[in-house]
Amino acid sequence: MIIHPCVDADAVAQFAATAVIEAAGAAIAARGVFHWALAGGTTPKRCYELLREADIDWPKVHIWFGDERCLPVGDAERNDLMADKALLNHVPIPPMQIHRMDAELGPEVAAKQYEALLAAVPVMDLILLGMGEDGHTASLFPGNPALEDQRLAVPVYNSPKPPLERVSMGYAVLNAARRCLIMVAGAGKADAISRIQNGTRLPVARVQGCEWLIDREAAGNRIV
Question: Which H or E element spans position 214?
């Protein structure tokens, strides 16, 4: 594991925000475009808020989503609504470059549509991920059949957390990214981090070549 120890959740968010700025600058300089996949959750939200005034060439940014909940458009629990409020409503990214998961159509249809979009973009420049207390990431949960789905975007059924139906990027996309950051904060994550460090292959640990931003509480005071 490549670990960047952080004091607290704010430090995790600040590290991630700085990484986004750096990755965007490098991608736009090299290829004229920055493909960035967002995560849901409290710590990513703080990262997005920090980026509102960032020196990024926003019209050259394409936004993607690591997962989405199968809820109506505009539902308060959707990841894209959180991203809108925290960042996307505040920066000049063309709407056609914000690639939302149409999860309101159901897992299978939405996954098929998103896979078609992802197929046109071989590699994400940066993916942000979070981790749940059970070691899930995006909407890839322990023991769920979606873990073995090889498609670029996968339907998720019977989630252990509501709602039961979701859509997630698959490992084929997550493991191909130029850079991937996993943001982990809070004492509730300490057991999963310990298990991963001891070799347990929880879903988040199946993402290869990523960098871990772990705060003191999540680390159980072992690394900070």
Answer: strand 211-215
